[in-house]
Structure formats: C-alpha cells, structure tokens
Amino acid sequence: MIVENITTMSGFLLMGFSDNHDLQILQALLFLVTYLLGSAGNFIIITITTLDPQLQSPMYYFLKHLSILDLSSLCVTVPQYVDSSLARSGYISYGQCMLQIFFFTGFAWGEVAILTVMSYDRYVAVCLPLHYEIIMCPRKCRWAVTAVWLSSVIPGTLYIATIFSIRFCRAKIIHQFFCDVPQVLKLSCSNDYLVTIGVADFLTAVAFACFIGIVISYVHIFSTVLRMPSAESRSKVFSTCLPHLFVVLLFLSTGIFAYLNPTSDSPTALQFLLSVFYTVLPPTLNPVIYSLRNETIKIVVRKLLLSSKFTG
After folding, report:
1. Is 2 domain-assigned?
2. Other residues' Cβ atoms within 10 Å of the Cβ of residue 129
3. CATH number for the domain including 53?
4. Is the Cα dihedral 98, 100, 101, 105 positive or negative?
5. Can you tell me the distance from the alpha carbon of 286 to that of 114, in angstroms, rounded to the nearest whole number?
6. Edge-to-edge strand order for the sheet containing 173-174?
7. Residue 305, Cβ neighbours under 10 Å: how many?
8. 110, 32 contact by CB (below 8 A)
9. How does the record classify its membrane topology (predicted)?
C-alpha cells in the first residue's frame, strides 16, 4: 500500500485491519459474504412486510423500516472497504469520507430512534392492549416513522458542519475500515474538534434518553408478562419482545463501548472487533434474530421460498 505524501493528500488512507495484502483479500471476502447475507435478509424482511397481508400490523411496519435502515447502513461502509481492499488501495477522498460520516451517523441515529418506537409499540401492545388500535393507529405510526427519518438527518448535518471547520495537520491515516468520527477527529491539529465533541456529547445524551425510555418500557412489559396466568400468552409475548431487546442491547452496548474507548495510533484487535459489532453485525443479524422466534415471519418466509413464483 502506497502511503507517500499522506499529510498533503486531499483524502484519507483507511488502514483497515491489516497491512498484509493476503489478509486484506480474505477480510474483504468475509465482509463481502456478510454484506450479501445481510442485504438478502433485510431485503426479504422488507419484501414480506410490504406484500404479505399477515404482516401489516404496526410491529411489522416498524420492522420494515428498521430493515431499510440496516440495509442502507451496510451499503454505506462495506462496499467501499471491499473495493479498496481488492484494489490494494485504502484511499478514500475527502468528499467520500464526509458522505460516509453523514450517512452512517444518520442511519445509526435512525436505528436508535426506530428501536425506541418499537419498544413503545410493544409496551402498548402488552400493557395497554385495549387501547392499542387507538394509540398505534396507522396515522400515528406514519408520523412516528416520518419523525425517525427526519431526525436521522440531524446527526450527519451537525457532524459535517463541525468537521468542515477542522484543520488536519497529522498524517491522514484512519485506523479503521470506514471514516469513523473519533478516528477523523484524532487527526486534528487544533482545538477545533471540541465543537464536534460537543455535538457527540449532545447526541449521546439524547441516545441515552432513548435507552432509558426503552428500559422503562421493558420493565413495564416484563412486570405485566410475569402476571399473566397463561404460559402460552407469556411465550407469545416473549417471542416478539426478546428479539427486539437483544437487538437493542447488541447495537447500543457495542456502539457505546467503541465510542467511549479512546482512539490510539495502534488500535487493538478488540477495538476493530467492536467496530464490526456495531457497524456490520447488527444489520446482518437483525433479520435472523427477528425471524428465529417469530412464527408468523417464519411461516411467511417459508411460503415465499416454496411459492411457485419463487421456484420458477
């Protein structure tokens, strides 16, 4: 990999996980396989929740938009890394880097927001079942999803607006497989990045508030479930709530650990692994997690796979 004139070049050099070209090829292939599997899984969820009449409730409506966010998030980071690894060049232009930051932070925030909405939906379904159709009516669901997508523009806009004012004086080497905000800020040669840190603190506080809302929802859900006399009813609730709770914990915990960890010039294997956990793994596993314990989704997927149109 050519690293000449790194300081003066207009773009950045993504170091990825290894300098060894053979390992880069292997990692690129693994990322490609993961990307294809994640894209296929999310595309199937989007398709069946759009077309199948069994999956038209608010829960599946929100799940569809979670899958759209996951699919979009995968497309932002993985293809660029696979392409640069196979081409033996980690170079990414300044514009491409800014676009990655804008879309990745936006989709990440959108995921936090939609997971919060989904937890409220489950709370209403379990704790206020008699009022569910009124509270979660189609109009309110559309407004909630619209708010999620509109709010996802805010983080990327704030980050880009502040990063544009930063001057870079260090070698523009990013020890990551995509343009991650902490790694970009590390290259700053002044205190300009403090404004961006303020943006990050603000968004972290809002995300923490969302997390508290999710926790409160599930405290009420589980306290209600444990009072249910029927084991079948408890099992049905757990089959829809536990996958959502697992997705929330996986996404937020890995993201928080990765961003709270101080960046260094020689990142450890654990830091790289954490970055994969909050960027690639959740969008890839979400379709599987939601399908494993949800009988309705499994039935619809089997119907899709065995349909004459599909096999034909």
Report:
1. no
2. 10
3. 1.20.1070.10
4. positive
5. 13
6. 91-92, 12-14, 173-174
7. 10
8. no
9. Multi-pass membrane protein
Structure tokens at 283: 């969008």
Question: Look-up: residue for tokens 């969820």?
Answer: 45
C-alpha pair distances (Å), 123 with each of 5, 52, 62, 106, 133:
56, 25, 14, 26, 13
Tens digits of per-residue pLDDT, 36-76?
A: 999 998 998 998 889 888 888 898 999 999 999 999 999 99
Dist. CA 84–CA 69, nearest whole Å: 24
Q: What is the amino acid identity at position 310?
A: F
Which positions ≥6 away from 23 have C-beta within 8 Å?
17
Nearest to 40 by CA among 284, 250, 282, 293: 284
Domain-located, residue 93: yes
- Alpha-carbon distance 213 to 227, whole Å? 22
CA distance 6 to 2: 9
Count of Cβ atoms closer than 10 Å to residue 312 Cβ: 5
Q: Transcribe 153-191 into DSSP letters.
A: HHHHHHHHHHHTT--B-S--EESSSS--HHHHHTTBSST
User: Which range of residues forms the domain containing residue 261?
Assistant: 12-311
Domain for residue 4, yes or no? no
Pairing of strands 91-92, 12-14: antiparallel
Whether the predicted pLDDT of 287 surpasses 80: yes
Angle of CA points 262, 266, 267, to nearest 5°: 55
Residue 6 lies in a domain: no
Task: Give the chain's domain count.
Answer: 1
The total of other beta-carbon atoms located within 10 Å of residue 311's CB is 7
Query: Which tokens sit at 199?
Result: 């943006």
Which residues of 4-63 form beta strands (DSSP E)?
Answer: 12-14
Please compute Rg for the chain using Cα positions: 21
